[in-house]
Structures are given as structure tokens and as C-alpha cells.
Amino acid sequence: MDHRRAYLLLALVIVFWAGNYPLGKLALAELGPLTLTGARTLLAVPLLLLVGASPHPCLAPSGGPTTSPSWSSASAVSSPTLLSGTSA
Fold it and tell me: Could you read off the pLDDT of 37-60 as tens digits, one per residue?
């Protein structure tokens, strides 16, 4: 990956990260917190599953998404949180 593409991707991450706050404030004016959290989860889960199943070596965990201990550990830790709707 060349430097130009790396900086472009870094800028994209910054824009998404920084844009989350004002967009969240606007969305909370129209939607309730639980509705907003549910919508964000419904949008994020398929995207994260696509990234996790990606064959690209920079995106997929080492050993592949189903054979890697880190993938199964992350699934085991996050599944109860997603199912219960709590973070603590």
C-alpha cells in the first residue's frame, strides 16, 4: 500500500469517527436512545461479519475467521453482550 492510499484511509477513519458525534446528536433529537442503538447495531453487525469473513490477509485474522482462536474468543465474549443488550 502506498503512502497516499494509507493517508486517504486514515483521513476516512477520522471523518467517520469525528462525524459520529454530531450525527448522533441529530439522530437523538428524532429517535430514542434504544432505537438509535438498535439501528446502529443492525447496520454494524453485517459490516463486521463481512470484514471478519474477508479473505484479504490484512482484514481476516490469522488462520482464517473460523479457525483462529482470536475470532472464536471475540465471538464468545461479544455474543452475550449483543444478546442481552448490555455492555457491562
Answer: 998 899 889 888 887 777 766 655
